[in-house]
Amino acid sequence: MNSSYPSVLLENAVNEFAKLPGIGRKTALRLVLHLLRQDDSQIEDFARAIVTLKQEIKYCSCCHNISDSEVCSICSDKSRDASTICVVENIREVMAIENTIQFKGIYHVLGGIISPIDGIGPSDLQIASLEERVKSGEIKEVILALSATMEGDTTNFYIFRKLQPYDVKVSIIARGVSVGDEIEYADEVTLGRSILNRTPFDESYKMITR
Prior knowledge:
The chain has 210 residues and is of the alpha/beta class. It contains eight helices and seven strands, in the order αααβββαβαβαβαβα.
């Protein structure tokens, strides 16, 4: 055995854990050794939770957020303002904004942002379904809450142009979130204020392009 690992089984497990984002081989080894010290029942519960998640998780038919049912708990909550949609890149942003307890509307998860260098175009995202929701006439405001990066701004502008034909207010979160920052890493106070102090997108775009 040429590997520094005393067991091929251990090495295989470390290799799998190391494939996870942000997990290096040292951390992967620590996690595997921790699992080895657990009772069989705990390991089985862990494995079952992962397999069940993959097999049974659903995506909300309205907003595309992860859900246990056809329609997520946010979209089905009658106390939410269904006339205001907050557009985010992925579910992590939904969780971050929900933690601020400042937003009472509903969401639309794009599943990414436009990034030609990564081969991601508008058709790869849930932009057409957003347009369909707006086209229904029930939406009064669309809040663009994408990361303050070049790709985020490109996506913001594309969506703004797509929604211009409709009678809907398009706004963007305030730049309390610094340029280059990603939404999921903003602190809750800053993110909450950015949502509350949102501005019309056309005004924001004019300031950006000056």
